[in-house]
Structure formats: C-alpha cells, structure tokens
Amino acid sequence: MRILIVNPNTTISMTEKAAQAARAVAGHGTEIVAATSKNGPASIEGHYDGAIAVPGLLLEIRAAQVAGADAAIIACFDDTGLEAARTLAEIPVLGLCESAVITAALLAQRFTVVTTLERSRVLIENLVVRYGMGGRAKVRAADIPVLDLEDNASGALVKLKRQIELALAEDGAEAIVLGCAGMADLARTLQREYGVPVVDGVSAAVKQAEALVSQGLTTSKRGSYAAPLAKPYTGSMQAFAPESAGP
Amino acid sequence: MRILIVNPNTTISMTEKAAQAARAVAGHGTEIVAATSKNGPASIEGHYDGAIAVPGLLLEIRAAQVAGADAAIIACFDDTGLEAARTLAEIPVLGLCESAVITAALLAQRFTVVTTLERSRVLIENLVVRYGMGGRAKVRAADIPVLDLEDNASGALVKLKRQIELALAEDGAEAIVLGCAGMADLARTLQREYGVPVVDGVSAAVKQAEALVSQGLTTSKRGSYAAPLAKPYTGSMQAFAPESAGP
Amino acid sequence: MRILIVNPNTTISMTEKAAQAARAVAGHGTEIVAATSKNGPASIEGHYDGAIAVPGLLLEIRAAQVAGADAAIIACFDDTGLEAARTLAEIPVLGLCESAVITAALLAQRFTVVTTLERSRVLIENLVVRYGMGGRAKVRAADIPVLDLEDNASGALVKLKRQIELALAEDGAEAIVLGCAGMADLARTLQREYGVPVVDGVSAAVKQAEALVSQGLTTSKRGSYAAPLAKPYTGSMQAFAPESAGP
Amino acid sequence: MRILIVNPNTTISMTEKAAQAARAVAGHGTEIVAATSKNGPASIEGHYDGAIAVPGLLLEIRAAQVAGADAAIIACFDDTGLEAARTLAEIPVLGLCESAVITAALLAQRFTVVTTLERSRVLIENLVVRYGMGGRAKVRAADIPVLDLEDNASGALVKLKRQIELALAEDGAEAIVLGCAGMADLARTLQREYGVPVVDGVSAAVKQAEALVSQGLTTSKRGSYAAPLAKPYTGSMQAFAPESAGP
Amino acid sequence: MRILIVNPNTTISMTEKAAQAARAVAGHGTEIVAATSKNGPASIEGHYDGAIAVPGLLLEIRAAQVAGADAAIIACFDDTGLEAARTLAEIPVLGLCESAVITAALLAQRFTVVTTLERSRVLIENLVVRYGMGGRAKVRAADIPVLDLEDNASGALVKLKRQIELALAEDGAEAIVLGCAGMADLARTLQREYGVPVVDGVSAAVKQAEALVSQGLTTSKRGSYAAPLAKPYTGSMQAFAPESAGP
Amino acid sequence: MRILIVNPNTTISMTEKAAQAARAVAGHGTEIVAATSKNGPASIEGHYDGAIAVPGLLLEIRAAQVAGADAAIIACFDDTGLEAARTLAEIPVLGLCESAVITAALLAQRFTVVTTLERSRVLIENLVVRYGMGGRAKVRAADIPVLDLEDNASGALVKLKRQIELALAEDGAEAIVLGCAGMADLARTLQREYGVPVVDGVSAAVKQAEALVSQGLTTSKRGSYAAPLAKPYTGSMQAFAPESAGP
To answer: Measuring CA to CA, how many Å separate B81 from each of B44, B77, B94, D72, F37?
Structure first.
C-alpha cells in the first residue's frame, strides 16, 4: 500500500517532519511517499493562504494517483482543499483535522485542539463543528507562526505547553489534539508529560488511510463528490481541466 | 459607490446576465462594474471546479479594489472563495448564497433553495447550515447543467418550476431562493406566478453590498479575516504573494 | 420610498435619536417617517414591558401602511412584536436585532452583542439562536437602564465600553453589535476607537428595508405570516379586529 | 391549592371545555378556577391574534394572583404570553405546549404534535425547538379552524384522526400530542383507539402546576423573569403599569 | 396510587433519605414504596458503576410492578438504566435528572446542575443535551464522593454551596438543580438561602410520576420502548429472560 | 497486536461471523481473538436486552485485558456498554456504530444506516446524533429479527436491499452503513452491486483499534472515563467490584 503525504505548504522541511511522523506509525507493507506542493505559499496561515494553496495541492494528488498511490493525506491541519481533492481523486483522501478529531473522540468525551495562530482558531472551530464535534471540543491558539515550529529556539514549545495546561485546567479537556502538521514530533513527549492522550493529525490520518484502503473503501462518487465534469478551463488554470484529471 | 460583480465562472454571457440583474436593483449613485475571471472553469459545478476558480477570482477582486471598488460580489451561488476574499480585501465581499438566505429569512419562516445540479445540493445545504438557516431551509436540485441556463431551448425552466412546485407542496416553503447566479432573470416572473417571494442571489447581494458601504462597515480585520501575512509564494502562484495584495 | 421607524417605547426622545440614525444612512430618495407608540411603557425592559407594548406598536404600523409606508422598522432591539407585525402588514417589517446580527455576520465570524440590562440578555440570546447565530455570537449586558442612554451624565458610555473591551479580550469578538436602539449614535465613534466593525441596529434595519423594497420583496403571506382571519375582537382590543386591518 | 385556567381566546365555550379537562385530572384538594379573557380575539389563529390576546390574558392572571391563585395556566397551545406572564406573576405559570411536550418526552422517544391550522404549524415547531424537542417531535396541521372544534358536526375529528394516522405511518410517532386546547376532551378516546399515549396540554399543565406548587417552587425572579420595573405606561395601556402589578 | 422509589445504589441510608424526600411532596393518596437494589455497587460514581447497577435495578422494578406499583422512580441522578426500565415496565418510569431539568426549565431560562464528582459531570452534561436543555443548563461538579453526602461532618455542604455561588456569579444561573439523589434534603434550605428555585430530582420525579398516573398515561409500547421479545438468556443473567418480565 | 472481538449476544454463530469479518481486514501481525458473552440474551434487540448484556460483556473485556489483549471491540451495533467498557479498561475499546459512522463520514457527505428492527432505529439515531453525524446520516430499519441474519432462507437480504434502494432513491445517501454485526459478510457484495461505499461496523472497528494501538493511544483516564473507584459490590454483582478490575 502506498500513501501520499502531500504538504500544501511549499516548505520542504515541514514535509520531512510530516513524512517522518507518518513513517513512525505506518503499518507493515505501507510505503509513505511525501510530496511538497511546488505552487503556493511557504506556510498556510488563514483563509487566503489556504485558498491559493489548493491548485498546487491538487496537482500533486493527481500526479500521485496516476503514479499508483492508494490514498492521499493533505498535511495541513486546516483540511485545505479536502472536498475538492475528494471530488478529483478516485483514491481516498484524508485531512489532518478530520482524522485527528475522530480519533480523539474515540478516547475522550471532551478534548481541546491547540493550534498555532489566532487567525486559524475560528477556521478550525468551524471544521470541528462540521465534523460533528462542536459540543465536545474546544480550540485554542498558541500564538506561534507556523514556520517557528521548524525552529527549536523560537519558544514555540513553551507557548504550546501553556495552552495545553490551560485546556486541562479550564476546558475540562480529557485529551489534546495538536492542531498543526508541524507539531507531529511532539505528541508522544507531551502525552507522557501530561498523562492524557495527545493526538497528532499526521499519524491519525495515516492510520485512517490504511484503514480505508484495507477495507476496500474509497470516496463515494455518488452526489457531493461525483467526478468533475469535462469542460473548458481557461488562463493559468488550463492545466486543471478535469478531462485530463484522472483514471 | 462602485460595486464589483465578479463571475468566477469564465463564461462571459453569465457575467452579463448577473450584471443586468445587479443594475436592475442598484440604488441611485451605485455603479455596477462586472468582471469575468480569466483563469478557471467555464462553469462551477461542484467542489473541484469551485476550488480551481478561486485564484482567478481573487485576482479580479484585488484588481478591482486597487481600481477603487467599494465592495465586491462573487457571482456564484456556492459562495466560492468567499472567506479567502474577505481575508484578502479591505472592502466588503458578499456571496450570493449568504445574501439570499438572510434575505429570505426576513420574509418567511421556512423556505426552499432550488439549485442546478445534485452534486451542488449538499454543498449548498452545508452553506445554509453554516449561515444558521439549517432548521428553516431545504435545498432541492433541478438537474440543470449550469450552462443550460444560458440556453432558452434547454428545458431548464420547466425543471426549475417543477422543483418550486414540489417545494410549495411538500416542503411547506413560504418563499423560494433561486440557487444559481444564472437564474437571476427569472425571479420576478416566478414570484408573480407562484405568489410567494422569490429571492435572487445577485439582487440580494447588491443590496447587502450597498447596505454595508453606506453604513461605513467593512470586513473585520481582527481574527478570522486578518490580512494575509507577507511570505514567499512559489511556482505558478507567485503572483498571489500577499505582500503585493492590498491597497 | 417611505420607511416607518416606529418606537414601541413611548419615550419621544428615543424616537428622535433612532430617526436621526436612520436618516444618516438612508439612501437617496428614501424618506424616514418616525412614530412613537402612544400606548405602552416608557421603555421596554424585559418580557412584560415588551408584551404590553405590542398592540400600540401594531396600531402605528397599520396606520403607516394605510398612509403609504413601504416598509416598517420596529425600533427596539428585543424585536418586540416582529412576528405579529409581519402577519398584520403587507409591507416588509424589520427588527433591529435580526437586521443587526445578519449584518455583523457578513463582516465577522464571531461577534458580541452588548445590550443594556441583564434581564434582556437571555431574551436577546434566544433571538440570536432563533436567527441562526447561536454558535457565532455572545451577548453581554452592560447594566444600563434604557432611559439612562438618554442622559449623557449617567455613566452609560463607560459601562458600555467596559463590556466592549471584555468582548474583545475574552469572547474573541471580531465585531460588536450595539444591542439597544438608544445606542444608535455611538456606533461610528466606537468603531473608530476599537478598530472593529460596530453595528447599530437602526442603521442596519433601514438598509435591509431599502433592500427589500427595491427588490420588490415583501413578507410571504403563505403559511406562518398569512393575513389575520376576520373574527370578533372584544373589550379594549376591539379596535384591533383584523377585518379592519388591511390596506 | 387553587389553579387558574385562563383562556386568552374570548370564547367562553372553549374555557368550559378546558376547565372540564382540568377538573378531570386535578388532584385531591386542587380547585380549578376558570377565567376567560374579556379583551381580545374570539380565537387565536396565528401570530397576530396571539399578540393582541396577551394584555387581556395578563389582566386575568394578575387578578387571579391577587385573589389568591397558586398557579396559572394559559389555555392556548401557542403558549401565548407565557414569558410575559412569568415575568409578571409571583406564582408559577404554565403553558399547554411546553407542558405537553415535556410530558410526551417522558413516554416516548419520538412523537408528533397535531395542531389546527397550517398558519400555526411553524409557530409550534419553533416552540418545540425552543423547548429542546426539535429532534424528537414533528408538527402536523389538520386544517381545522379553532372554533370548529366547538362544533361536533364540523368534520374536525375526521381531519384530526387522518393526521394521527399519518403521524403513526410516516413520522415514526410513538405518542401523539393534541396541539390545541379545544381538543382536550378527545385525548382518552384517541389513546384507546390508537394504542399510543395521547397527551392533552390542559391536563398536562394542571399536573405540572400542582407539581410545582407542592414542591414549593415558583418562577425565578433572578434574570430573565425579574419582576417588571416601575415606570409610566401611557394611553390605553396605562392600566398595565407594573407598579400596580403584583402582590 | 403507589409509587416505587428504587435506589440502584445498594446503600440503604441513601434510600431512606430519598424516600423521605419523596414522602414530603407526595400527594394525598400517594403511597411511596422504597426499595434498595440488592445487587450492585454501594454507590454509583461514573459509567462503570452505573452499568453494573442496572440489572439489580430492573429486578426491583419488575418485582414492584408485579406487586402493583403504579409508577417507578430510579433514585440516581445519572438516570441509570432509564431506557431499559421503560422498555421492561408497563408502568411509567421516571429518572431524577430528566424530571429535574424539565422542572427547572418551567421556572428559569438558564440554570445550573451541581453534581458530585467530576467523573459524572460530562455524563450529566450529555443527559442534559439529550433532554433538550443543552443551550440552557450548565453542569458543575462539587468534588464530593457520593457517600460523603451521608456524613454530615464531611464538608460536602460547603463544597456544594461554593459551586452554587459560582453558578450564580459566573453562569448566569437563574435556578439550581441538585444533581444527586443524596442531596434531596438540602433543597428547601438552599432555596431560602440563595433566593432562587432549587430543584431536587427526587421530589420532581415523584410529581411527574403522579402526573402521568393521574392522566392515565404510560410509556409508549410502539417503537423504541416496545416490550422485550421472548428469547433465551444464559448464565448469571438467566433470571432476566423477558418471557418472565411482564405484569 | 491482539484485538478482542467480544460478542455481547450469547449466540456463538454470530461471533464466528464477526470474527471472520475481522480477520478479513486485520493487518499483518494483528491477531483477532473472539469471545462470546456467557451471560445475557441470545440477541440484543432494544434497550432491555442491551442493558442486561453489559455485565457479561464487561467480564469478557476484563478477562481479555488480563490475558494481554491490546484493544477490544464490542460486536453489537448498538454500542452496548461502550462507555462502561472504556471506564473499566486500560486498553482502547471500540464500538461498531461509532467506528462505522466515522468511517462513512470520510467517504461521503450524506449516508444511511440500515439496521434490523424498528425498535433499534431510534436508539441508533440517538447514537448517530451523539457521534456528531445527526445532520449527515439517516437510519432505516429493515424489519429483520437479528437471528434471522444467521439463516440464509429468511428473506433478510431481500428486506435489507429494499432499504438500501430506498436510501439511495429518497435519502440522497452517498454511502451505506450496515447497522448490525450480523451483516458483516454482505458489505463487499452490496458495495459492488450498488456502486457506493458500504461500510461494515466490524471491519471499521478492527481498523480503528489497530490505528489507536499503533499510535500508542488509549482511552483517557482523566474525567469521564476515570478508572472505577474501589467500593463494595453486593449480591450477584459482587464479582464486578472494581478493586479487582484493573490490570
């Protein structure tokens, strides 16, 4: 089984960290293939970056599907482009936020997602509501620029731990979800330190991808995610015309 | 006051129809400026088309803002790219679906949105829920390809009327929302025929845009819609780097 | 276009302030007509005052409709009598709370309504939920008797600002809604001071009224708001018999 | 214990029917006192009738409280004026809809309310949502003018039974709530005929009133239902000035 | 009328306290019969204790029904086994939490439940949501082991009062619900002290039981609560085979 | 990795079918251990059977944990005893309904669960709501006694297919969830026949169990699922005293 981890941020070091987290939990016989988008923002911080990142992301998923990937994971906690990717691809596509919150919900009645920037907090709250966990999860922002997570000296970990402690003290959190792909390496350590489950989205998504593939399940092509209809695409988006989209 | 109507579908005849609907309701002193995206799909039918249409759409909004537009309207009922546009722009940005459902909610306790394709039905249902009208509105699809609305001989009107009649008979609809920019010309006729309010998203959005501008209100830049942070954008998306984004 | 602003509080100075706010945003060709209820409480503070204010309010709307008004606005943030007025009138009727929260929702993902008295807080929370914004808006009470807003020396502004500051600091508010007709004159100043959109219900309602009238839309008479049935009314309410109600 | 049944419809025969239903379930030592509003519509059908009925209704509750009533029941399934009455009175006030749906919820997971006119259907749906039963209850209208329930030859029973049968066949109803005070006499017969619990609002409200009084519980005067503040009332509403309102 | 109070905790002193509270509010002609489960945990603290307590509880309800009880009350605020009991019994079955929250909702728009242990807090929150009061009620835990309520010297009352005070100051609570059967004796005193309604679940359930019986209402046997189907039960659960279940 | 499948129905043939489905999807290195409860009903049909089945179920989970199981799956679609099991066990515990609906939600925006008996329909609807999928999933009952699924000649498959066809035609279902452990063998065939994803709860739960174990995640012991407190258990339930519960 081959699973694509595609980073819609164009920063390669983030991809590496996500791929490493993915490989750490991948099952026997699962190959993790990592790709970094070549077209888009260095980091996704809010709605604008997210929207611009989607075409480059879809390009990588399309290429990976042609090359034989069995599932794809979008390595950004905002689940950027997830619905478009599910429409495009024949293979299952997983998002980090969705995978992480359904995982946390198997472990705890109440949990808190700790993300990076305040501007992403409500965006993730809205995702959590859409995924049906609005009554069970809170979202906190730790005020960490995404790329600071690549830099050990940035004080990012201190800020992150401060929010975890507040989640335990004030939110009644029974588990923690790390709300950024770039935090994948911290989950085990924090879990040990705080004595509650700490869920990383990359790991969660890898296991959901494996789960779907080994059950012979893929995205429904009836209704919402029906394959794109053939039609002209113009200008710089010509390359995305769906008649050339997939198997 | 100058209001931009931007069509994220690259089909110019649709833009013309929307602009005409907009001008029909625009207030004294409002200038309607219409733009058609130059980069993207000929019509937006589902999540994939929608996602690819966004960058081209944002380009038009950015250009119009630089050129002095006071508000922008995204002329697609899926509210494609609405959150990204609000993040990018300093001027208010309106979506057709959001504008139409809040308008219908001022007129009726229960209403039905009639859209084009089944693949867009759940997408619009999800928008309706997000806009707080999930308990008040139903969504029906009339099985009309978007571009058929440009063609009088396509039988589209018959299908549309069939769904309106079912909405009145089975949904308890007290008003109807036309769920596609391409239906803008039909609202008045259908309202007369069925004796219930028929809301067109383009008209509704123009009036909401005028309302915001004349109240001196624009998108909050605190939190969710804070202006994009300066950062490198790579590949074909370089032109979208946010440091060159705003006025 | 003639828009009635009817104050269901019987205090004329409040009507004047609302009319002034209305005129400040009214479009070219819109005439604002103000009326003060002659029958009811000097101020509406809670459910009891609100219920008693309704018949006097309906009388003014009926009279204005006969006199040719194109729309009516109920100048009380509790949206007192809104559903009854929509049932009575053939012209559109707008409430301040409904108009303000749908306006704020076009500008911000999260916002806070600041109202006067604690006894009105839950009442407004319930309206906000009914209007579909329960997940997006918080409501705070500033502990200001309604009539104190008429008195510059009352310290009302200080209390109001205290709650706005708490909304920004603790609620994650991205915009503020002023939750009382008597605060209409403060919106622009507060918006400048706090750097977030500050929405006034009177202004918002005027623009919604204009929007509906210029779109040729009025309250649906199918279902919930069907015109009152002719029937005997007895005692002091005889004057309200619906057979004499219409235009 | 003395419980007031006040009919906000001014039709005395309806009051008699409600009082009879009340007496049939009243406990040992409970005296049922019936009053008919002297000011308002002959029957309440929709929002307008309901709003005009409230002052006359409140007058009766105030008088009964002064005369020593221990609790009051508003004998209209729309729960007309319920919140105002709770604000006014020191004694508990019960509504038929609220009492009936909480009773049905003790007996069944899913149930259907059958009311009279289509124009009241959504109004009751909204009440059901406000009382927390939106996911458990459906509402159907039997197309019966309220006063037809006073007339045995009107065919009202046939229409009512038709909707009960549809509720059982299509809604998965496990119990039925009769959604009009004028149906109180039919509950036992229908329950026997259909083999599911049939809840009458008058009976349910009497038992809730007794329950509160014998527990020493009454409406909270903290927050939402705090007693009306003393203030001038003008015009025909002068008699309602709250300084003369309570014991 | 004979009402069974069955304590699913096997601690007899708790049963006595509940029976005493029940008798204090029981109507003329109501006989309270108390039973203590003979099979299960000494106290129910969390999901595990609750699940194990159910069979012993059902045994007592079955026996009481055979012996002629008219209704049964499960004397544990977690509403342990309530749905199973309603399926088993022909007579109405009441839970403390459900009875208490619907009672509080008749008295106040917002209220707080104060329970014993943190591990029960979310369990009760989930019940409150299921009973439709999620938007109106908060739940607080006072950190009191259940059996400490049997011991006057345990400091339990101080902890309970601390949470009531916080509920009034921070939650906007307009009424308090005591969230444990073992607190039944404190309601009246606390109500006097804090000046807001204080609802005890045992009292509330007794009055709901009386209400249902005197209305001739019992659990629907259509759908969710249909009588158990005859079938083999094996091992230590043989005694529970439903063919021997009925009256 | 060793995963326990415990059947809370005491019918061994059902266990075998579930174990077979489990083994068909289990990953390399996963050992499936099946156990059948020795204490309880032959089949779980409704709330009563479900409640009585729990202690026998917990006994098996406790034994398996002591014997070294890494995760446990409760092989009943009602998720009988799931919360109690999570409280008891140190290892992760999965339910079929929860696992299946979160899996379906990764594949489709809207889906329908087809269960066996009408009496289980609302029970499963309530689970679906609790798991956050109330707005996305419908539940249908095929009127099949649970044990008929063990009998090829019973016509069960015809009834099941009838409901799947209705789900596709009327519910807008984009995927199907089989709502009974006894249907595990049918998923692949039905998926091929209807061309939409068909999710089986047993398979889904196995993959979720593997996912949690390989991520080093287990049920939070903070808050809702804290380990049972030591205390006396009496009567036939003495064997369940929690001081002997843990590893």
So the answer is: 12, 11, 11, 54, 54
SS3 A228: coil
Which residues are CB-neighbours of B193 under 8 A, at least 6 positions away?
none
User: How far is it, in rounded angstroms, from Cα F83 to Cα F211?
Assistant: 19
| Angle of the E201-214 helix axis to the D201-214 helix axis, nearest 10 | 140
Q: What CATH number has the domain spanning E98-201?
A: 3.40.50.12500
Q: What six digits make up the tokens of C190?
A: 């507060």
Cβ–Cβ under 8 Å, residues B219 and B22:
no
- F171 → chain B, closest CA residue: B122
- Token output for E170: 């921070």
Encode pLDDT of C23-58 as tens digits: 999 999 999 999 999 999 999 999 999 999 999 999
Given a cut of 90, whether residue B61 has pLDDT beyond it is yes
User: Per residue in E72-84, pLDDT tens?
Assistant: 999 999 999 999 9
The answer to whether C175 and C111 have CB atoms below 8 angstroms apart is: yes
- pLDDT bucket at A243, cuts 50 / 70 / 90: low
From chain C, pick out residues whose CB is under 8 angstroms from the CB of A121: 172
In the block, tokens 């009214």 appear at: C26
Is the separation of the CB atoms in C4 and C38 below 8 Å? no
Instruction: Say whether the B–E interface has 3 or more Cβ pairs within 8 Å.
Output: no
Angstrom distance (rounded) from CA D3 to CA B222: 55
Asked if F105 lies within 8 A of A132 by C-beta distance, the reply is: yes
Neighbours of F5 (CB within 10 A): 30
Tell if the CB–CB gap between F220 and A29 is shorter than 8 Å: no
SS3 B168: helix
**Interface predicted TM-score of the whole assembly (ipTM), two decimals:** 0.96
If you measure CA to CA, which chain B residue comes closest to F111?
A: B122
Q: Could you write out the DSSP letters of every residue in F219-240? A: ---SSTTPPPPP--EEGGGGGG
In this prediction, residues C181-204 reach a mean pLDDT of: 94
Strand E40-41, strand F233-234: pairing: antiparallel
* C-alpha–C-alpha distance, residues C104 and B219, integer Å: 9
Calculate the average pLDDT of chain E. Answer: 94
pLDDT tens track for E179-190: 998 888 899 999
Determine B/F contact with 3+ CB pairs under 8 A as the test.
yes
Check F126 against E123: CB less than 8 A apart: no
Question: How many angstroms separate the CA atoms of D115 and D45, rounded?
Answer: 11
Q: Which of C115, C119, C120, C122 to mutate to test the interface with E (most CBs of E within 10 A)?
A: C122
Chains D and C contact (Cβ–Cβ under 8 Å for 3 or more pairs): yes
Q: What is the C-alpha separation between A149 and A182, in angstroms, rounded?
A: 6
Which of chain B's residues have a Cβ under 8 Å away from the Cβ of F172?
Answer: 118, 121-122
* Residue ranges of chain E whose CB lies within 8 Å of a chain C CB: 109-110, 135, 172, 174
| F131, F174, F215 member nearest A220 (Cβ) | F174
Stretch among B4-13, F39-48, F150-159 having the lowest mean pLDDT:
F150-159
Judging contacts by C-beta atoms under 8 Å, the chain C residues touching residue D58 are: 48, 51-52
What percent of chain C lies above the pLDDT cut of 90?
88
What sign has the CA pseudo-torsion C10, C12, C17, C23? positive
- The CATH code that applies to domain D2-95+204-244 is 3.40.50.12500
Domain limits, CATH 3.40.50.12500, in chain F: 2-95+204-244, 98-201
Contacts of A109 in chain E (CB under 8 A): 122, 126
Indicate the Cα dihedral angle C168, C171, C174, C175, nearest 10°.
-80
For residue A19, pLDDT over 60 is answered with yes
Q: Helix and strand tally (H, E) in chain E?
A: 8, 10
Q: Of D212, D218, D223, give the one whose Cα is nearest residue E197.
A: D218
Residue B145, number of CB atoms within 10 A of its CB:
16
